[in-house]
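User: Um, any thoughts?
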Amino acid sequence: MLGIDKRAARAAWTVLLVLVAAEVAYLIRRTLLIFIVALLAAYLLAPLLNFVDRVTPKKLPRAASLALVYLLLIALLGFALSVVGNQIRQEGVQLAVSIPEWLHSTDPLASYQVPPWLLAWKLKALDAIRIQIEANAGQLVPLVGQAGQGILSLLGNLVFVVLVPVLSFFFLKDATAIRRRILDQFLDHPRHAEVDDLLSDVHVLLGQYMRALVILAAVALISYTLFFLAVGLPYAVLLAALGGVLEFIPMLGPLSAGVVILLVAIFSGHAGLAPWLLLFLLGYRLFQDYVLQPYLMSSGVALHPLWVIFGVLAGEQIGGVGGMFLSIPTLAILRVVYVRVLKARRATG
């Protein structure tokens, strides 16, 4: 009547709804982060729950199996903290005390003789490193000093500690019902089968990604600990724990861990270990990226490095460390959706 095309109006309305949904998601990003982390934790616990279901009587309620899984997990975490938690705490306190002393040291690389024309560059590089450490010492020292005091100090938020296990419990308990209710919304829709396949793909992807991520972090923790102790690196357990935790942040996490490890070796008076540490870190990264990680993750999780870097940086701007952690599974899910939509269009075309 007014010359407005119905198709254009429908497209404009769809775009408006998407923008509103994106704005709402950004405003409640903290709440979404809690639910998403709880969902990923549920995928991590799912294999253990399935094992408990197989070895317990079939009449045992799923809630009881979940309670047993949680008890086993608490016992495992308590044992791990009792074994290494105190060592990490002690090393963290010692490192926090040593950092101010390192900032006033003259030349931690004095044992390394360089040509006279490189001496000025070496001193400039050391001064630049000191400036960066001093600029961040206000955050670095308290963080290191609190390392190893438990999961609460690592997460820094009681909401995560309480809500994530509770939400994961409900996700695991009602997973089948949640999936069925989602599919019921498309029961009479011609794309019901495609939605079912999409949910199956996302389910497999998230489960595989979380299990692979934990295995990669555990292997890194064990490998770092054994090598650091073997070469006599100070603060070996603390640095190995740091390397294992930062494996959860793609690309930038391992890179940051490597830089911290090398700096600690140099400024603690063990600069002679730096070349060996560098070779070890490079060799381990090649092993993980080209052998272990492809074995644990399918091609559905694989993303081009440019997308990984973009996702990590964008995730940090949106949600901080949590956004960096969630960037890769988010991009992988979008990739699965894109592939499914593309196949559907080709099939109908």
Observations:
- Residues 127 and 202 are 49 Å apart (CA to CA).
- The first helix runs from residue 6 to 27.
